[in-house]
Each structure stands twice: as C-alpha cells, then as structure tokens.
Amino acid sequence: xxxxxxxxxxxxxxxxxxRRVIRQWDGNxxxxxxxxxxxxxxxxILSALVPGLKSDxxxxxxxxxxxxxxxxYKRSDPxxxxxxxxxxxxxxxxxxxxxxxxxPTAIEADRVEAKITDGVLTLTLPKAESARxxxxxxxxx
Length: 141
Hints:
Elements: H1 9-24, E1 30-31, E2 35-39, E3 43-49, E4 58-63, E5 66-73, H2 79-82, E6 95-102, E7 113-117, E8 120-126
Parallel strand pairs: 1-6
Antiparallel strand pairs: 2-3, 3-8, 4-5, 5-6, 7-8
C-alpha cells in the first residue's frame, strides 16, 4: 500500500504571493534580439524589430562573416523614476541587448547599408566578391 502525502493547503497559500512576484518579475535587463535573415544572390537581408530606437541607440559591427548588433532600450516614462511599485504589469522592453550572428559567407563591410523604418531595422549585407556565384561562359570550338 502506498500513501501520498500532500502538504497542508496553508503552505500553498503562503507560496502564492511569491509565485506571483516571480511570474511578474521584471527580468528584462538583457534581451535577445529576434531577427529574420533572407539570402539573395548578392546579399543577405537582415530584419529586426527595434521599436522606439533611433540610429544613435544602436551599434552595428561587421567583421568578415560576423554581424554584431548592440543597443539599449531606455525607459522614457517619468513614472519610472518616481515609484517602481505603481506598475501592475511591465512588458515594454528596457535594458541592453546584444546579438552576434555568423553568416554562411563573408560580407563586404564597406558596402553594408542600414536603415530603420517604422521600428524595423533592415541591414543589407553584400556578400564578398569571392562568395558570389560566378557565371562561366562555355566556349564552342
């Protein structure tokens, strides 16, 4: 015969506030930047959501086949400085993020283009000449 003991419900009542705090804990100090990368014949097109950020808030570096995007969401709400406990829920991003990506081929860093439109960062990353497909002409004799 097996007995399964369950703790007294009072213990669960004590744990509820703790669980609520853990679920709502504002751990957004470090974000992962989600990206889409599309391959075209001569370039990779990278798109990332960066709502509310301006070009000055981002740092983009390219070295061979590695792209690194860094940025920081700053809190702009004046209530943030007054009292953190006024919020019931807090999901808007804040804090820094870094994303480092390795692409299949090297990139021509001198020709990279970046723009932000409606909160979407778009990078055009031209493939290095050595990574582009070459068309070979066949000579008839």
